Amino acid sequence: MAEIYKLIHPVKYFNDYISRDIRPDGRKFHEQRNIKVNVNSLKTAEASAVVKCGNTTVVCGVQLELATPKAEEPELGFLVTNVELTPLCSSKYRPGPPSDNAQVQSYMLSDIFSNSKCIDLKDLCIVPDKLAWVVYCDIVCLDNDGSLVDACIIALMASLKTLSLPTVTYDPETEEIKVDPDVRTPLKVDGCPVATSFAVYKLTERNILLTDPSAYEEEMCGGLGAHFTVCLNKGLICGNHKFGGSHLLMENQEEVLKIAKERANLVVKVIDSCIKNEKSIDK
Amino acid sequence: MDKEKLKEIGKICIPGMRLSPADDEHISGPGTYDLQGYIYATLAGILKTERDETRKATVITVVSPRTPSVLPRTGDIVTAKVTVVNSRMVQCVILCVGASVLVRPYRGVLKKEDIKSTDKDRIDPYKCFRPGDVILARVLPMTEIHWYHLSTAENELGVVIATAEGSPQGVGMVPISWSEMQCPKTLVKEPRKVARVIPENINQNLFNVGKDKEKKSKEPAEDKSN
Amino acid sequence: MPLDYRRFNGPEDSVSYKRFTKDYLKSYSELYNNLIDEKGRRKDGRALEEARSMCMFFARTDMVSQAKGSAYIELKKTKAVCSVFDPREIPHQNEFSQLGQLFCEVKFAPFSCPNQRRTHAPDADEKALSVALRQALEPTVCRHLFPNYQIDVFVYILENDGSCLAAAINAAGLALANAAVPMYDIITACSVAVIGEKMFVDPTEAEEHLAMMTPEKEGTNHGIITMSMLSELKQVSDFTQIGSMDTDCVTKAIEILEKECENIVPNIQKVLVLNVVQCIEQRKQLEEEAKEREQALNAKMEEWKQLLNSG
């Protein structure tokens, strides 16, 4: 019965909940969903992480390749991040080239990541102008239930934190490259950016912020993707995206920052404890 | 697993399970098929047997706990939302078939002459439907590949939920006659082909208006306490 | 290859670092000796004719919340996710078709293969797998129930350690049943890799790789056979053979595969039955909650009635 009501009277259905300070899935406005992280579950990738935020599931796999650095930036390595929204994660996506939404998510992630400066690309250079690492980070969404960027960043950071680079010896005369995969050095990661998404819902007299929105809530608030994403790295804002939706008041902004800060601390703790667990199992 | 619990649930079937011989006594119903003298299940679910008195046989069906992937069939009553109205026809998306909700909406078309059963020549679709209206309609035989043909030429079929122009979303109009509805807030009157909704249970219906309101307000509040 | 502007691309000349490691290039015999140890056991401790069905087989349904039905299958390292959606209109179709269609797509994750990063663009391998999957599934779905519509079946392979097609078919069969799509029977699949005299049931990536290589000696059997079966109806719905081998070898392989397909059936059955039980229990709980609500409402109504009556 509720299903039919939801379908035929979508706005009324949603309003009924929101006007009583509760969300359709039973959460409070600023309650977040559970986060589950699992690292190194895929053996074919150099490093990997599976992240679940509520129903949203993303998998990040890292692969390493070697290439010559760009002529204009001879001392920098490469780090390529891509977000893949597979057709299986939601009925909205079709097979084929990435949709506009997938491209926006991809760009946003890469923006946040490069702004946070948590990886120094110089660390990825082996011999200037000759040889550098290319770190391919492919983030695949298996189940899109909203707040995708949040989950993607967690997956990316969790896998980069476990990544270690094999030792490379380069002979400048013969240009011979030798790689020893058994001796590895971990990649230096400085800080950990964490994104927190909000959806802005316009009720007649006031705007309501929903933290960590689900796909249904995002849609009810007007369109694909969350409206407002704040990213923090070690207490500094490294990304602040606002797409569509209605306007935000100053006091909202402060509230948002407070929530984002709390969440950033929580997520860093989750990732670290997960990696620690994994290591203790390995030993 | 709990044996008691399983007993309570009934007989669980999975696709390809042989259920019974197919003879004069046993007929295959929904969720099953017969092949070479036997009835097999096509769905994962619970086995149900019903006695069909007219045919003097037992109908064997399998009921899935999930809504099976249904498509609208000829004769079904569907709930649809109007998307386009022009002078010749009304286009809509079908949302529900009977009581089951469709996950993917299917397209339906309502031709001008199928809107009303009387006065067919003088029907103006603009005076019957507006985009955004929720209507009840009956499915006609399929003639085109991707369009379901619909009809509202019955008293019980037509607009059930509509919002007047300029009124805020979620405020529905109230029917005041066969062909008019009025917004309770702005008091604007608009023409519609109104459906006479038959209540399932007359007694409860006496309190239906008050009850409905109460129910909606109650549901979220309940969730909160959980 | 033309540049893909919709994604971020790495430098064009990048190569996997594994090219420069010591054990990148190995001869055929070296690879062969790597597969089996002295006791005749395979690298992961299995006997030749032992499939990864017992403790290494893991399956579950309801992986993807947004899909109608979904399944996840793990054969030791091979991991596949499958989701099935409701019937939808067939795009660009202008003929009336009595039977519904299946649209299948198998995709590998870019990081699914151990040696080379997979490109995002669909390659011949994926296409071939998609077609094989569709052919295998078509006989098992009651397609006459949804004329002019198609059901989407998407399989995503997270990690490839051999027997991808078999894993994809098993996952898709489970997901279809989970989505309550009417099916004639449960479908299971298994594959075997043939290298010379030996048959590797449910091969790993390394074994498949070697089976695909042309052996040094002419005329030796080599190749991979994948077969899918409808267990109750005893029908073979798909039979894919790659490589070259003699007829005796093929008949022997079919015998083995038939047995292995049977062995998987109880696993799938268990998952489906559990799924039904779970669904029903969930529903019961919801109904109970609804009943409570109804009771509260009725009590309220009585109160109102009394108020109204008293004036």
Automatic annotation (TrEMBL), chain A:
The record's annotation in InterPro entries points to:
ExoRNase_PH_dom1 (IPR001247), ExoRNase_PH_dom2_sf (IPR036345), Exosome_comp_Rrp42_subfam (IPR050590), PNPase/RNase_PH_dom_sf (IPR027408), Ribosomal_Su5_D2-typ_SF (IPR020568), Rrp43 (IPR033196)
Residue ranges of domain Exoribonuclease phosphorolytic in the record: 31-166
Main localisation: cytoplasm
Q: Does the keyword Cytoplasm apply?
A: yes
Which keywords does this chain's UniProt record carry? Answer: Cytoplasm, Exosome, Nucleus, RNA-binding, rRNA processing
Q: Does the keyword rRNA processing apply?
A: yes
Its annotated compartments are: Cytoplasm; Nucleus, Nucleolus
Lineage per the UniProt record: Eukaryota, Metazoa, Ecdysozoa, Arthropoda, Hexapoda
**Matching Gene3D superfamilies:** GHMP Kinase, N-terminal domain
Q: Which organism is it from?
A: Loxostege sticticalis (Beet webworm moth)
Fetch the CDD domains from UniProt.
Answer: RNase_PH_RRP43
| Similarity-based family | Belongs to the RNase PH family.
Query: What SUPFAM superfamilies does the entry give?
Result: Ribonuclease PH domain 2-like, Ribosomal protein S5 domain 2-like
| Domain of life per record | Eukaryota
Q: What protein does this entry describe?
A: Ribosomal RNA-processing protein 43
UniProtKB/TrEMBL annotation, chain B:
User: Which domain of life does the protein's organism represent?
Assistant: Eukaryota
Q: Localized where?
A: Nucleus, Nucleolus
- Please give one Pfam family short name: EXOSC1
Can you give the residue ranges of the Exosome complex component CSL4 C-terminal domain?
105-140
The Exosome complex component N-terminal domain covers 12-48
Query: Keyword set for this entry?
Result: Cytoplasm, Exosome
Tell me the protein's name.
Exosome complex component CSL4
Membrane-crossing ranges are: none
Q: Which organism is it from?
A: Loxostege sticticalis
Keyword Metal-binding belongs to the record = no
Q: Name the SUPFAM superfamilies for this protein.
A: Nucleic acid-binding proteins (SSF50249), Ribosomal L27 protein-like (SSF110324)
Q: Does the keyword Cell inner membrane apply?
A: no
Automatic annotation (TrEMBL), chain C:
Coiled-coil positions: 276-307
Question: Domain of life of the organism in this record?
Answer: Eukaryota
Q: Which UniProt keywords apply?
A: Coiled coil, Cytoplasm, Exosome, Nucleus, RNA-binding, rRNA processing
**CDD domains in the cross-refs:** RNase_PH_MTR3
- Annotated ranges, domain Exoribonuclease phosphorolytic: 58-182
Where is this gene product found? Cytoplasm; Nucleus
| Family recorded in the similarity comment | Belongs to the RNase PH family.
This protein is called Exoribonuclease phosphorolytic domain-containing protein
Taxonomic source organism: Loxostege sticticalis
**Lineage in the entry?**
Eukaryota, Metazoa, Ecdysozoa, Arthropoda, Hexapoda
